[in-house]
Amino acid sequence: MARPRRPEDLAAQLTETIAPRAKSLIITVYGDAVLPHGGSLWLGSLIELMGLFGMSERIVRTSVFRLCKDDWLTNTQIGRRSFYRVTESGKERFAAAERRIYAPLAREWDRGWDLLMVPPNALDAETRDALRRELTWQGFGAASATVYAHPNCDEAAMHRSLAELGVADRIVHMKASLDRAEGFGALRDLVRGCWDIDQLEHDYAAFLDHFRPVWAAVDAAEAPDPAACFVLRTLMIHDFRRILLRDPMLPPDLLPADWPGQESRMLTRNLYRRLAGPSEAFLMQAATTANGPLPDAQPAFHGRFGGLETIAAG
């Protein structure tokens, strides 16, 4: 049997394969790693962390400037040092994503649907396109040009997006339930018309191909390198987030057989639990705030994926 590769080698390989963009990766680092520790970081620490992914200082500085313009981060200058903290708007967006990314495996569907109806000529073309992009990233599917559907949406995130786009008073939100009298055949056909199920399935399969070798490598390593663990944890959540936030989380009855989405979540949960300890130790040593070292992680961090306290179990 071939010996598993070292976590350090896989970290370098996956950084090249996934090739994340700096701005998006910084969002992942803040949401996954920095926010549980208070949400603030010295720019010098961020530059060092991003250097692990091959990002230059210039790219990091440009990216945080843009993230400030987009109201994700805000800058505080203390002497010659800059510190970047998550804004209130950024916290709300991170909270919406966190509810989906770190949810436990168990998930039930009550056969309810959220429908958003856009009256004809209610929006100009630019606003309509912005609404479509935002709803797509929340997992909504377009049942028609004026109707969006979701089987289990995050209502708080949906209402916040409508308010931010200034269209809350022009969109009709309705609840519907599935009538099973005719079975699932027609609904399956509708689902394939609303969502790109084939692309989601392909992306989840690629995710499994990327990170199953990581599980084997980390599981075989007696003491995996903490910096490599931080890189692998970040890349995994980054890649998983990119797919998951487009996934409407349809119930099994409406999905193809052997759907890889649940396997991807299970792998992410198990690998995150294994990587959390060494990656957190690295982060606490590497990162600095305006008040010194990072504060301890908030209790909610340890509840991710149903509980990180089970790391050592089994």
From TrEMBL:
Cleavable signal peptide: none
One Pfam family named in its UniProt record: PaaX
Protein name as catalogued: Phenylacetic acid degradation operon negative regulatory protein PaaX
Gene responsible for this protein: paaX
UniProt organism field: Azospirillum melinis
Highest taxon in the source lineage: Bacteria
Coiled coil: none
Domain Transcriptional repressor PaaX-like N-terminal, first and last residues per copy: 21-90
Alphabetical list of Gene3D superfamilies matching this protein: 1.20.58.1460, 3.30.70.2650, Winged helix-like DNA-binding domain superfamily/Winged helix DNA-binding domain (1.10.10.10)
Transcriptional repressor PaaX-like central Cas2-like domain residues: 107-178
Ranges for domain Transcriptional repressor PaaX-like C-terminal: 195-284
